[in-house]
Amino acid sequence: MKKKILFSAVVLLALGGLAACGNKKEKASSSKDPGDVNVWVQFSDETAEGKAWQEIVDNFNEENKGKYKVTTEFIPRSGSGGGYEDKVNAAITTNTLPDVITVDGPNTAAYAKSGVLAPLDDYLKDADMDDVLDSIKQQGTYDGKFYAFGFSESSVGIYYNKKMFKEAGIDEASLPTLDKPWDWTEFKEISETLHKKNKGPVFDMQIANKDEMLTYGYTPFVWSNDGSIVNKEGTEAEGHFNSKDTVEALEFIQELVKKDYVPVTPIEKGFETGKYPMYLSGSWTMADLEANYKDIDYGILPYPVSDKTKKLVSPTGSWALGMTNNTKKKEAAAAFILYATNTESSKIMSLGNSVLPIRNSTIDLIKDEVPEGMKMLMEQNQKSGHARPVVVAYPQVSRAFQQAIQDITFYDENPDVQKVADARAKEMQQAIDASLKK
């Protein structure tokens, strides 16, 4: 996840009709050396992520000199999510993929089902998978096999303005913790206190984004109430997205809007400029605040939890490494994937790119080197991280979820949340059924 969470809707466009590509005669990778591994990544070499990545690659090449050598092709994504995906999809159609590609976590199922990725299970014996966060394993697994190994992680929390909380009479000692988060009722009470002081909206939930942030940031409310988007197999949305538990979570979100706690069209940079005391966002916002809004004294709170379950759930998900079925260098490709996701490489990526680690051991290594907000998000991931649904039709399912959120924000036109959920669940189901038939 990045500052702007991009939606990889293009994946199924190419993959839907390309499952047969895996049956074509496999082409060798561009290099004839069985130890050379070609990797495509979705970022520029000039970014912080690119520089951290190159350090990892250089370390791998040095440690495996004479045996393996990794070469990276940097293919930045465009603002709409194209660029990288366009090239990957073109390579799928021409059967010219490299040995390893990066995959946006939620799209793992589509790539796996279509035969683009090869399972990694046979190469994980020395990967210490017990050390890997559950969310990374969940995100990378499809139909019982592990296809994509996340090399960084992400999360979201509630940023709060310490000065505005104090001015509203909210005692710092009363704030929630990971072990004792606010429940929804308590959160509404705090929002009302802030609303009276602020005389207007108090919590920018990024509803106006109308993009993947809605799915990424809002699904934890559903999961906290024991609701779901789809079943575990990723084959059913009806009976899940429109279940009683899910609808109750959507009603909670709608109530925040109805009570004017959450602005539907928020002021741009409203939290950063002191207009709103709360903001739903991820770790990337810390860098922006530190660089451009030093006057804002802030902290990060955990998600509020369902009154019914008291269960803390937080969102996760980022880019992962997958070995393509094209490669004739599986041992070398797998060796690099495991190296790029080990404890030390995770440390390099996390500190170099200000992203969250994928391993408990890395968290232990760096917890004293990062800001308090980053530490809180890392611990939240360990305690409650939950990947987005693993479903082949993820782009369509996510889009229907986003539209459901947009629907319920217009509460005068859509007062019946159950009706909205029924309609969007049907839309999800149709997309799932169509994807499974291909």
What characteristics describe this protein?
438 residues, alpha/beta, 6-stranded mixed sheet, 4-stranded mixed sheet, 16 helices, disordered N terminus
Structure commentary:
The protein is an alpha/beta fold and about 450 residues long. It contains 16 helices and 14 strands. The strands form four sheets. Strands 1, 2, 3, 4, 7 and 13 form a six-stranded mixed β-sheet that branches. β5 (about 140) and β6 (about 145) form a beta hairpin. The longest helix has 21 residues, at about 415-435. It is globular and about 70 Å long. About 50% of the residues are buried.
Q: Which percent range fits the helix content? A: 40-55%
Number of strands: 14
Count of DSSP-assigned helices: 16
The shape, in one word, is globular
Distance between the termini: 29 Å
> What is the strand content?
5-15%
Q: Describe the main β-sheet briefly.
A: 6 strands, mixed
The low-confidence parts are 2-14, 16-30
Helix-strand sequence: HEHEHEHEHEEEEHHEHHEHEEEHHHHEHH
Name the structural class: alpha/beta
Q: What is the average of the pLDDT values? A: 92
Q: In angstroms, what is the radius of gyration?
A: 22 Å
Can you summarize this structure?
The chain is 42% helix and 12% strand.
Map the helices and strands:
Elements: H1 11-15, E1 36-41, H2 48-63, E2 69-74, H3 84-94, E3 100-104, H4 108-113, E4 117-118, H5 134-140, E5 141-142, E6 145-146, E7 148-150, E8 156-161, H6 162-167, H7 184-198, E9 203-204, H8 212-224, H9 244-258, E10 278-282, H10 284-292, E11 298-301, E12 314-315, E13 319-324, H11 330-340, H12 343-353, H13 360-366, H14 372-384, E14 385-386, H15 394-409, H16 417-437
Parallel strand pairs: 1-2, 1-3, 9-10, 12-14
Antiparallel strand pairs: 3-13, 4-13, 5-6, 7-13, 8-10, 8-11
Helix pairs in contact: 2-12, 8-9, 12-13, 15-16
